[in-house]
Design goal:
The chain has helices at 3-21, 29-53, 91-107, 116-135, 139-148, 150-160, 165-191, 196-202, 220-233, 248-256, 258-264, 282-299, 308-315, 318-343, 345-350, 352-371, 376-396, 409-443, 454-457, 459-473, 479-494, 496-520, 539-557, 559-579, 582-600, 609-612, 619-627, and strands spanning 68-76, 81-87. The chain is an all-alpha fold.
Amino acid sequence: MSNITLLSIIVFLPALSTLLLAFIPKDKVEVIRFFTLIVTLVVLAITVGAFIAGGGFQYQGEEAKYMQYAFNEGWIPSFNIEYFMGMDGISFPLIMLTAFVSVLAMGASWSITKHVKGYCILFLLLLTGMLGVFLALDFFLFYVFWEVMLLPMYFLIGVWGGPRREYAAIKFFLYTLLGSVLMLIAILMIYFNSDLVGLYQISDAGGGNAVKWQTLNVSETVTNSITAELESRKESGYEPQPIHSFNLLALAALGQHAEAVHDAQPVGPESDPEKYACYLSSNLQWWAFLLLFIGFAVKVPSVPVHTWLPDAHVEAPTPISMILAGILLKMGGYGIIRICYPICPHGGYELMWFVCAIGVVSMVYGAFAALAQKDFKRMVAYSSVSHMGYVVLGLGVWSATAGTLYNPDYWNMGVKGAMFQMIGHGVSSAGMFFMVGVVYDRVHHRDLDKFGGLFGKMPVYTALSIGIFFAGLGLPGLCGFIGEVFVVLSVWRFSPLLAVISAGVVILTAGYILWAVQRVYLGAEYKGPHEEALVPSTFRERLIAGVLLVFEILFGVVPHQTVLKYMDATIDRQVVELASCTQPQEMLAAEAEAKKQREEATEPTSIVAPLETSTSVNAPTANLLVRTGSTE
């Protein structure tokens, strides 16, 4: 099966299935539910069968570092917009998580009794949007899937939610739309300042050595346009024209080799030397990174753009809360690691303290807010804000600085910890929301002070709940522990203070989790309404909770074999490439400081010394130093 067929089936099978679902009479509720469940199972089976059981996804060797299953077909040629998909070690675990959580969320949807047909159609459309986000490698296509995901979630909350569902749905829509607008502005900034011609010239295809052209998966049509443009430039009087692109891999190369691309571009007339300059300058990267980061931080969510999350979770039905916490929040973290840092590394370097501060503030605020809650579901919602703060912090720990001799190992650990935290939290948060929903469906309230004694009435449910909540606590041996430890360790070399605060959040997490367990499951007696409805859990409920708990244990006991080995090669390559961007930044700063001291001193000092203490300079770095006029 070709790459385009395989990935297209995975993404669009749920959406195409809605056409068949439309012909099922709406009164055939069980048929509709089982049909939707089967579709999600088929998607999961295809992903597992093709990428794991079949040994198709490579996680060792040179191939594992780059995009796999990639294909690139023309879509809107006039703007170089392409139907471009693929996966690597960053997107692959998230695709598996999406397929897995979607099956369990659909299994939890038997509690939905109103407009079941409409619910299932929107559920499948949402699944297509989520899978498309993780597979799209064209920025325009990525944005389309990002917006496609918004509308189904809006209606799933607004129609099937709780008493304040309209308010929660509108708030979710407005916050997400705000992030989308900022993202769109950044996309246009990047697109109109991209130039594949300059990138081609510094690549191996154009005679350079800065970039491997084949790894960018630029289509043959675009490559032909580039070569034709280069031929045309040989003619006298020809006005050079840049070739813009939405290709995420090419944009990442343009961001990381911005000055080298600039140097390769033709020089304008003496009156305007920068007339033909078209590149991702450091200033542009700073603004683009900020806009993109805010857009993705809304989805994470991070403080202060997090306030939509508690309302959305509280009002959303249980299976949609599972999707929201287990998958949608991870799209924010994925956007930061896939788009923000690779395309705008100079912005990421200059804003590293800002990113880390946002992560730590979210961790601390979310934990204290969870401690203060009386609503069981709202407590779990704020715990997500706190846990996703670890993700932002791990991604922001740019430790490859002069103080560490440009060693990226700690940042590597932070990124892997953030990625593992996204997977672990995707499983544990879906489980926590499901367990809250099980008891809510019986007693129709979530007041923590009115619960108590559930262990005696629902012993199996209580045992499963305690295991799942302990995973959220970060207990060693469960999925919540690995990611948090990696992030905290990575922060130590970046800032001991932030590391101490991050480690202290674990105590707050233990506080609100154990307090909730004590009040809900181990209290003396139940004090709320509908006590007679507290009957033992059903087989369906035990099956869903049991599967989640098994995977939480697997991820905690064998993290490398289940998650880390698939992402190692890709993250290692990306971190090393991004860390190389730090050296020219700091060396230029050292050079500027030396020049200032030379001007102030009575005797001029050499500016060579700061450069000699640094590590070897790679080709892009050398180009940057030449362009800024440094000497050696």
